[in-house]
Amino acid sequence: MTRAYISGTGFYVPERVVTNAELATLMNTSDEWITARTGIKTRHFAAPEEGTIDLAVPAVEQALEAAALTVGDIDFIIFATSSPDHYAPGSGCFLQDRMGFGEIGALDIRVQCSGFVYGVSIADQYIRTGSFRNVLVIGAELQSTNLNMTDEGRDVSVIFGDGAGAVVLSATEEDRGILSTHLHSEGKHAKHLWLEAASSYTQPRFNKEDIDAGRHWLQMDGREVFRHAVVRFPEVIREALEANDIALDQVQLIIPHQANLRISNEVARRLGAPSDLLYSNIQRYGNTTAASIPIALAEALREDKIAPGDYVVLAAFGSGFTWAAALIKW
Ligand code: UT7
Known about the structure:
The protein is an alpha/beta fold. Helix content is about 35%, strand content about 25%.
């Protein structure tokens, strides 16, 4: 039986570190509020000359090196982002050209915070069915250029950060790798966390009226998102474990999307797990949307938190609402 395993990981965050104190010079907020409500102390913001794929390239280079593969070995690119370089074409195409991949397929997916786990699921299907041997899955986000840095946008803008993570998924006949993936959505909650403009409902699509009304900023009903996140995370983690007949106490690490430290702690409580079973680096990077799980996975590996044979769960929740999990035997 062919399975997909993670043969290499990498991540990159832009150089510029933005502290809570710096944000407090732009809007009515404070280090105390941000720390207490989210756990975040710093995030990284891209430089003016950087775009989304500029963050992705170093992450991909590391993942290829860790997998002992070269550009020519990759059969397919899956690029998860909600903040692409351009509206069209997808960032995967720009990355294909920049890094000199052959004329392989490049698929952008927009599943926001769940995008990386959805991408892993797609790659897993191609590898299990024998279509591809090595698939690159990237989560990369450049949110900082679309945050409303005024009092009006403070509930959203203090949360997000920029960054990229990448993995190579490779085929194996061994008893390891992605055991199963579980994907969900519930679009009736779409407007609790959305980016309304530019929209196909307006003519022309990009217009001053939308900008004047602030519809081009990410809008979020934080409490509503929080309320659903603390239910869906445990639910989908349990779903993944039950599908494979694995008990929670057999799991060495859960890597949740880094949405809010309070959400992760509440998820641990509801699962009946120690809070350190859930990996956290949101303190340093904020919420990097589709990039947060591959960044956390790469860091957890560097910190020797994952060993061969370990069961690891990736779990995501975000805009859509969408939520997803992957159970991996390392
Ligand atoms: O990636 C997945 C998507 N995102 C999430 O998962 C985010 C989920 N939601 C959250 O993380 C939290 O809801 C937030 C961190 C966004 C907000 O925390 P909260 O504890 O839910 O606060 P709140 O929205 O209930 O606001 C409490 C107070 C309000 O003031 P009043 O009405 O009590 O006077 C807000 O106006 O905090 C105020 N507030 C702020 N104060 C200082 C909101 N944002 C800020 C801020 N600084 N940045």
